[in-house]
Give the backbone structure.
Amino acid sequence: MKAPRPMPLEAAEALAIQALGFIAEDAERLTRFFGVTGLDPSGIRDQIGEPGFLAGVLAYLASDEQTAGEFIAHAGCAPDDIFRAHIALGGQPWEREIP
């Protein structure tokens, strides 16, 4: 697999924050996010500034093909933008492709 184009940190942060908002705007998605991550609303407030949190949001998003596809359509971004933002935010590369 060819290395993705680098994404500027500010753009990566903006995409991750948009992804978090996308998750939060739907009760079912948010409940699943809390269940998988073990966070709650106060936990998000505590973690939002921590290194790796936003990369983790993108990794969570990418872990579910349907949710990732819905976000890509909602945000109007390219599928590899999630991966590129994840890497820019310090996340480790993953093996699977984003839809």
Observations:
- The chain has one domain: 9-88.
- DSSP finds six helices and no strands in the chain.
- The two ends are 15 Å apart (CA to CA).
- The chain has a mean pLDDT of 87.
